[in-house]
Design goal:
The structure is a single chain. The protein is an all-alpha fold. It has one domain (7-59). The chain has three helices and no strands. It has helices spanning 7-20, 26-37, 43-59.
C-alpha cells in the first residue's frame, strides 16, 4: 500500500504504521518507510513519512539511520 498510485492512501498507510509500531516490528516498518521516502513523492506523502519516521525514532531510539 505504500506504493499505491493514490497519494492519500500512501499518507494513510504511513499514519497507520506509526500507530501499530511496536517492539517486534519497528525496524522493518522504519526501513520500509525510509525506502519509500527515497522515491519521488508528493509533498504530503514525504511530509507524512518524515513525521512518522521521527515518531518511530523517538519511541525506539536505538534505530541507527
Amino acid at each position: 500500500m505504500l506504493k499505491s498510485s493514490c497519494y492519500q492512501t500512501r499518507c494513510s498507510v504511513a499514519n497507520i504504521l506509526e500507530e501499530i509500531t511496536n517492539e517486534q516490528n519497528y525496524y522493518p516498518i522504519y526501513v520500509a518507510l525510509f525506502s519509500q521516502l527515497k522515491r519521488k513523492q508528493t509533498i504530503a506523502v514525504s511530509s507524512t513519512i518524515e513525521s512518522t519516521l521521527e515518531e518511530i525514532k523517538k519511541r525506539f531510539p536505538d534505530i541507527k539511520h
